[in-house]
Amino acid sequence: MNALEKIKELIAATEKDAESFYIKKNKAAGTRLRKAYLDIKNLAAEGRTEVQEMKNEK
User: Fold this and answer.
1) What is residue 2's predicted lDDT score, i.e. its pLDDT?
2) Which is deepest, 7, 13, 37, 49, by most CB within 10 Å?
3) Residue 22's pLDDT is what?
4) Which helix (H) or strand (E) holds 9?
5) What is the domain extent for residue 49?
6) Per-residue pLDDT averaged across 23-51, rounded?
7) What percent of the chain has pLDDT over 70?
């Protein structure tokens, strides 16, 4: 569940950048937002691995 918690925290921290990019058209916020999306993707892959390992243990 560690990856899920990290994803939740990252999404909460990224909301301000998303608002700045989509509403205010701030390009620097868009760069930070793209990085956050990449981090979320990597954490999701980590979470999938974690779940698969736990599933195979039983």
Assistant:
1) 87
2) 7
3) 96
4) helix 2-22
5) 2-57
6) 96
7) 98
Helix pair angle (2-22, 27-57), 10° resolution: 160
Domains: count for the chain: 1
Q: How many CB atoms lie within 10 A of CB 14?
A: 19
Q: What angle do CA 22, 26, 31 make, to 5 degrees?
A: 90
Mean pLDDT of 5-13: 94
Spatial CB neighbours of 14, under 8 Å, sequence gap ≥ 6: 32, 33, 36
Measured in residues, the chain has a length of 58
Ramachandran category for residue 26: left, alpha or beta (phi over 0 → left; psi -120 to 50 → alpha): beta
